[in-house]
Design a protein that fits this description.
The protein has helices at 2-6, 10-13, 22-34, 36-46, 56-83, 105-148, 152-190, 206-225, 239-245, 263-266, 308-316, 339-352, 355-362, and strands at 193-197, 231-235, 257-259, 274-277, 293-297, 319-321. The chain is an alpha/beta fold.
């Protein structure tokens, strides 16, 4: 009887059983039982006979009533969820099911995970700010205690030494920044060209796009630290990808090439020099040609859509290649590397001309073969 009552409306009651739903279950159940579900409960409890068959008009009326009831029930659930307090496991994050009627169960779970991710991110940022503030207070307190324990002459010396150290640090940072800019400007003319293809936004979720944005940020940082950097290209990005990139501090000042066109259009006169790096290629690259342009697929795909980059390269009739990953990674580990790992791998190889050293530097140790 209870199974018949509570599992007859999957859009409402078979949604993910998160802990904060317990706070509103009694409200929703009372609503369901008090309306159409009450009649079903009475019929099921009073006898084992099946429900009476309804005529066409009654059936249409009943279907319309069910839709209205679902809307009202989901509105009550959303309202209760948004006003409910955080549960002991921190799962109440102001999540709303968007009335549940136009979203599948998988979409509802994805939306919940996204809201949960945003809440966790806000908590991490807040905790980091609090940690830095506490560390600053501790250092200031230690400095004040140090000054309080000496005489005036010694105090003046300490303050002057600290000021000189700060000036020296700032000068070193400015000098390092100037050298980095000089290296990147030089790489614009003479460096190895590495292209990140950003035309896969439609295949990624918002979370995947944010992850790709972070990987691109790591790529630029690694390239800037390199003694002989490459010249990075971002091609084929759409409005959504561009909006995420613009959130990176200082992105507008990056010394890279940004082109919203496809790499085919951007390098139309160098089509024969294009090589798409894809794990599905049969051509293993044991060396890097400085005259070629190596393309990396900007795709963070947690659903593992196979062959996407290979199919694209074949359709465009450009060369493909893959790095000697199988020779240096464990068979049991994932053979797919992140964009920033591939870029660091290429940078290290161009510096050392040794794949083993490059893999040790760029790839986590848990993935490496023990040789």
């Amino acid at each position: 009887m209870w199974r018949r009552l509570f599992f007859s409306r999957p859009q409402i009651l078979t949604t993910p059983s998160f802990s904060n739903l317990r706070n509103v279950s009694s409200t929703v159940n009372h609503f369901l039982v008090s309306r159409h579900a009450a009649a079903r409960f009475t019929l099921s409890f009073s006898s084992n006979s099946p429900l009476p068959k309804l005529g066409a008009e009654e059936t249409n009326h009943t279907a319309a009533a069910k839709v209205i009831e679902k809307n009202e029930a989901m509105q009550m659930m959303n309202s209760a969820l948004e006003t409910s307090s955080d549960d002991d496991d921190g799962s109440a994050v102001g999540f709303s099911y968007n009335h549940g009627l136009n979203m599948s169960k998988v979409e509802q779970k994805k939306l919940f995970k996204q809201r949960q991710y945003e809440a966790r991110k806000a908590e991490i940022i807040s905790a980091d700010k609090e940690r830095r503030r506490s560390e600053g207070d501790r250092k200031r307190k230690a400095w004040d205690e140090k000054l309080a324990g000496v005489d005036e002459e010694e105090r003046a010396k300490l303050i002057e030494a600290r000021r000189a150290l700060r000036i020296k640090t700032i000068e070193k940072m400015n000098a390092d920044k100037a050298q980095k800019i000089e290296r990147l400007e030089k790489a614009r003319v003479h460096g190895q060209n590495i292209v990140i293809d950003l035309e896969f936004s439609s295949l990624m979720s918002p979370m995947d796009i944010r992850s790709l944005t972070r990987q691109i940020m790591f790529c630029y940082a690694a390239n800037g630290r390199c003694s002989a950097p490459s010249h990075l290209w971002l091609t084929g990005y759409g409005s959504e990808m561009e909006a995420q990139l613009l959130k990176i501090p200082g992105y507008e000042n990056w010394i890279i090439e940004k082109d919203s066109r496809s790499y085919i259009e951007a390098f139309e006169d160098r089509r024969d020099d294009l090589i798409y790096l894809t794990p599905d290629s049969e051509n293993v690259l044991y060396d890097i040609d400085p005259r070629k342009l190596y393309i990396l697929g900007g795709l963070v795909d947690r659903t593992r859509q196979k062959g996407v980059t290979m199919k694209k390269a074949r359709n465009q009739r450009i060369q493909t290649g893959k790095l000697p990953i199988r020779e240096y990674l464990k068979e049991s580990s994932c053979q797919i590397l992140a964009i920033n790992q591939v870029v660091e791998l290429l940078l290290k190889f161009m510096e050392t001309r040794d794949w083993k050293t490059s893999f040790v530097h760029a790839v986590p140790q848990r993935k490496q073969c023990q040789r």
